[in-house]
Amino acid sequence: MSTLKYLSSYSPDLQAQVQGLLDDNRLDRYLLDKYPSLHRVANDKALRDFVLELKHSYLKKSAALSKIVYDPNIHVVNNALGTHSYVSRIQGHKLKSKNEIRISTLFKKTPTEFLQMIVVHELAHLKEKDHNKAFYQLCRHILPAYHQLEFDLRVYLTYCERYGNLY
Questions:
Q1: pLDDT band at residue 3, thresholds of 50, 70 and 90?
Q2: pLDDT digit string (tens) for 20-69?
Q3: Does residue 1 carry a pLDDT above 80?
Q4: Which listed residue, 33, 39, 71, 101, has the most CB atoms within 10 A of its CB?
């Protein structure tokens, strides 16, 4: 079995199923059948609107976001698909903080579900900094299919690594 680095934390049975799809050249069919259409969030303004709509629906009282952008410098090889940064600065006698969300440009041309999963992940970091039980409960509260989407996104990344972008 080849290395399935994006799926290494999943069971050997799931890895074997994905490997079988790869070996039979059917992984693209699996993804296209399950996620046939792309989102239309093509620029930073549209991304900001998309993120803020989710934020206002589920995390109204969380910290404000100062920047939401697609970032071409985020590469999957660093195991990051998006980043959330929190910076605190003292200006005079006030403590000012900035929250930013940056999403890899890889997600400019993917299904809506994959973009949602990444955005939900980064938004959850506004309340929970660590990847703990509370973090994943919040992700599932916002997006009930979070874990399935995370798995399918990892399958997509496996495809991309071998063949290039599918969408």
A1: confident
A2: 999 999 999 999 999 999 999 999 999 999 999 999 999 998 888 989 99
A3: no
A4: 101
Residue 33 has what pLDDT?
A: 98
Pairing state of beta strands 94-104 and 82-91?
antiparallel
Distance of CA 147 to the CA centre of its chain: 11
Alpha-carbon torsion 8, 117, 110, 73, what sign? negative
pLDDT digits (tens, 9 = 90+) for 91-130: 566 666 678 899 999 899 999 999 999 999 999 999 998 9
Per-residue H/E/C for the chain: CCCCHHHCCCCHHHHHHHHHHHHCCCHHHHHHHHCCCCCCCCCHHHHHHHHHHHHHHHCCCCCCCCEEEEECCCCHHHCCCEEEEEEEEEECCEEEEEEEEEEEHHHHHCCHHHHHHHHHHHHHCCCCCCCCHHHHHHHHHHCCCHHHHHHHHHHHHHHHHHHCCCC
Strand order in the sheet with 67-71: 67-71, 94-104, 82-91
Q: How far apart are CA 14 and CA 145, in angstroms?
A: 17
